[in-house]
Write a structure and sequence with these properties.
This protein is of the alpha/beta class. It folds into two domains: about 240 residues, Peroxisomal Thiolase, Chain A, domain 1 (3-Layer(aba) Sandwich); about 150 residues, Thiolase/Chalcone synthase (Peroxisomal Thiolase, Chain A, domain 1). Helix 3 packs across helix 6, helix 7 crosses helix 13 and helix 10 crosses helix 11. The two termini are about 15 Å apart.
Length: about 400
């Protein structure tokens, strides 16, 4: 099978609308959480979210095209443009039938559904927008990116709830491994901050009720009380090593393992013993041919909910045994909240940047853990160390588990 490398990255996040700005703010421990501005939250128990700031879609596409996209598609198109540029990929010289897209979205265009459904209940069904369906369906992040950049290869949309971004990159990795594409544009995009989604997650008691943005998303902390809803996109360019080297590409990292499993246990809770997520990590390590002791860093799913953080801790112990106590673990969600379908993709980018800079950011806001959560969650301040292998974990409602293993590139 072909070796697969990362050659470009792009991001739109609550703490930066490109990778450089995002990473600089990661190193500053910047928290991108604040009061929701997209609708009136006066009567809501949860008032905080991690919104994208100062994003101008027209800087990335013409105004008419932008109006025909939900924000999650706009974010995907913008992040893809950055990733293609970062990769130095000249699309005019490429066989675009060999360039595919695999960009996932977990929730779809619920804001569009809200807006258009209101017309229906008000007796104005004949005024529903002709653009409602193409704006609401989740595959349109992948579709719009392919259209915008003329990418004619395999075009897919992976939907595995909060594991979407990681599964999307993992499946794109497989496509290249098996020769179905030379290049894949992969990742996730999400714009979920609307009344319906927030109301639904409040009803599930899944959202943080904290009023202090600095204490709202606090993964692994004993006072955690739920996740913070967030938006954005993360996109990476994956290539076969052969293709990347033939065009003299800058190689950022190599993907060497991918594991995907199901808990087959509960519609929202992870499996209590962590075995499902643990098996995904084990599969990724087995594919790479490495031992738990070789792992330098784990970017945890770390949502700041009681069940996730406890059961993911068990999963890490299940996968790594005693070596679980010697690895640096963190949660990027402590700064940017939970981007759902985009979370795994942005966290994958964090892993690549961590390898590149030899820096592991702290789990910001973490002050005190509980008795069973006794691993090294990188509390207080970041750690500078050489990183050869990093794992990024994502766990989704429905029991979806995905782990992707990234390695510092060596010829």
């Amino acid at each position: 099978m072909k070796r697969v490398v990362v050659t470009g990255m792009g991001a739109v996040t609550p703490i930066g609308n490109n990778v450089e700005e995002f990473w600089e703010n990661i190193k500053k421990n910047k928290v991108g959480i604040g009061e929701i501005t997209k609708f009136d939250v006066s009567d809501y128990k949860c008032k905080l979210a991690a919104e994208v700031k100062d994003f101008d879609a027209k800087a990335h596409m013409d105004a008419k095209t932008a109006r025909r996209m939900e924000p999650f598609c706009q974010y995907a198109v913008a992040a893809t443009g950055e990733a293609i540029k970062d990769a130095g990929l000249d699309l005019e010289k490429e066989d675009r039938t060999r360039i595919g897209t695999c960009i996932g979205n977990g929730l779809g265009g619920v804001a569009t559904i809200e807006k258009e459904h209101k017309k229906v209940v008000e007796g104005k069904a004949n005024r529903v927008s002709v653009m409602m369906v193409p704006m609401m369906i989740s595959n349109m992040a992948s579709g719009n990116v392919a259209i915008q950049y003329g990418l004619e290869g395999k075009c897919t949309d992976i939907v595995t709830a909060c594991a979407t971004g990681t599964n999307s990159i993992g499946e794109a990795y497989r496509y290249i491994q098996y020769g179905e594409a030379d290049v894949m544009v992969a990742g996730g995009a999400e714009s979920p901050i609307c009344e319906t989604n927030v109301s639904g997650f409040i009803s599930m008691t899944a959202l943080s009720s904290a009023e202090d943005p600095e204490r709202a998303s606090i993964p692994f902390d004993k006072d955690r009380c739920g996740f913070v809803i967030a938006e954005g996109a993360g996109i990476v360019i994956l290539e076969s090593l052969e293709h990347a080297q033939a065009r003299g590409a800058k190689i950022l990292a190599e993907i060497v393992g991918y594991g995907s499993t199901c808990d087959a246990y509960h519609i929202t809770s992870p499996k209590e013993d962590g075995s499902g997520a643990g098996r995904a990590m084990k599969l990724a390590m087995e594919e790479a041919g490495i031992k738990p002791a070789d792992i330098d860093y784990i970017n945890a799913h770390g949502t700041s909910t009681h069940h996730n953080d406890l059961f993911e801790t068990r999963a890490i112990k299940y996968a790594m045994g005693e070596d679980a106590y010697h690895v640096n673990i963190n949660s990027t969600k402590s700064m940017i909240g939970h981007l759902f379908g985009a979370a795994g993709a942005v966290e994958f980018i964090t892993c690549v940047k961590s390898i590149e800079d030899g820096y592991i950011h702290p789990t910001v806001g973490l002050k005190e853990t509980e008795e069973e959560m006794d691993l090294n969650y990188t509390m207080g301040k970041g750690v500078y160390k050489d990183i050869t292998y990093a794992i990024s974990n994502s766990l989704g409602f429905g029991g979806h588990n995905a782990s992707i293993l990234v390695k510092k590139f060596e010829d």
